[in-house]
Write a structure and sequence with these properties.
129 residues
């Protein structure tokens, strides 16, 4: 559901993606200067550094959020608890948090994929730079 996507989008800047924004701007500005000056070796070094940085960041972010995936996901979805008392919202609530006859993956299990998803998004931002 949309709530799972929203909770993940809320967690990305907090747990790693904000560190890539500055690097992407640096690669864009410094990298274009290197290419304009025909310093391709320096550009390759800068880009290699950025790629290694993104991979290490994804590993660290995934490693630091994986043990706390359940707590982080429930904390980010805390405001949805007000809908639990409304009987019309019960199907949506159970699809987000699991339980009942819900067939989809609850919010807590989506956070186990936080590291690989962060790697994809951060890698895309560096490649786009």
């Amino acid at each position: 559901p949309l709530y799972q996507v929203g909770a993940m989008q809320n967690a990305f800047p907090t747990y790693g993606l904000s560190y890539v924004v500055g690097l992407a701007y640096s690669v864009r500005i410094v990298g274009s200067r290197f290419v304009g000056q025909r310093k391709y070796k320096e550009f390759r070094g800068l880009y290699s550094y950025a790629a290694v940085y993104v991979v290490v960041l994804a590993i660290v972010a995934g490693g630091s959020t994986l043990p706390f995936a359940r707590a982080i996901s429930l904390d980010l979805a805390e405001q949805s608890c007000e809908f639990a008392f409304n009987s019309q919202c019960t199907p949506v609530y159970t699809s987000v948090f699991g339980g009942g006859t819900s067939s989809g993956a609850p919010l807590q299990t989506t956070f186990y994929l936080f590291g690989p998803i962060l790697l994809g998004i951060a890698g895309y931002r560096i490649l786009k730079a």
